[in-house]
Amino acid sequence: MGEDIWMRCPNVVRTNQTVGLEYLTELDRLQVIQKRRQCGDCSSAGSRFTVKNIYNEKVYFAEEEFSCDCQNSWNVTVVDSYGIPSIHMYRPMVCSCQCQPIDVEVHSPPGNLIGSISHELAWFSSKFKLKNAAGDIMLYINVPFARGRIGGDVEFKLLGSDEQSVIGKISKQWTGWFSFATDRYGVSFPLDLDVSMKAVVLAASLLIDYTYYDHRHD
Fold it and tell me: May I ask which residue range the UniProt record assigns to the signal sequence (predicted)?
């Protein structure tokens, strides 16, 4: 098998808001392939993610920093084909007694806040709220009640700001009975969605994996 081919960087005008996000301007679908690393040193056992387009070209590579000592923190860096950090996702460590959820911040490039994600927990209707840099809720993701791995895909619907219109989805794809170390996610959103919010949706797909399908922090 040949080496993975990286997507060509689109010829678009760069601004402070799009540096590192140029690839997303031409995309409305992504494939996220996650591989969880297992090793004796828990602090280095973070997940790795490869982000591809529909042509199987690599768009980004992401790596999670994971530590058993900071089980509620979450820190992921996304790099492009040159190894340059394009997106950074961060949630600080919180104590288990804290009632209010802490937002996950999304930066691009690292240090420049472009949005955030909050997780609203409820017995039967949990959801993620995707916000822009100003803190305005732009999108929602509905969390299905049945999130089991067995027998088929699990769809997390992406909703518009009216919380009614379905504009895309994050789909956890069924990969078989014995694929315990690898997960796949299909991500779709409108082609004309603001590129910063596309990055926040991508971040949400990784957060869904961490929240519901990663049992290291149970």
Answer: none
- Domain coverage including residue 206: 22-117+177-217
Which stretches of the chain score pLDDT less than 70? 1-3, 13-18, 37-45, 66-72, 93-101, 146-151, 175-181, 215-218
Count how many Cα atoms sit within 13 Å of the Cα of residue 109 in the half-sphere of its side chain: 12
Report yes or no on 48 lying in a domain. yes
Q: Is 207 within 8 Å of 75 (Cβ atoms)?
A: no
- Given a contact cutoff of 8 angstroms between Cβ atoms, the answer to whether 30 and 187 are in contact is yes
Number of folded domains that form the chain: 1
Residue (of 126, 130, 198) closest to 159 by Cα position = 130
> Is 97 among the domain residues?
yes
CA 170 – CA 187 distance, rounded (Å): 5
User: How confident is the model over 47-83, as pLDDT tens digits?
Assistant: 899 999 999 999 999 999 865 555 567 899 999 999 9
Distance CA 61, CA 78 (A): 6
Give the pLDDT confidence score for residue 97 in this predicted structure. 47
DSSP string, 58-98: EEEEEEEE--GGGTT-EEEEEE-TTS-EEEEEEE----TT-
The upper half-sphere exposure of residue 15, i.e. CA atoms within 13 Å in the direction of its Cβ, equals: 6
pTM: 0.88
Query: Is 153 strand, coil or helix?
Result: coil
- Is residue 166 a part of any domain in this protein? no
The answer as to whether 31 is a domain residue is yes
Residue 173 has, within 13 A of its CA and on its CB side, a CA count of: 12
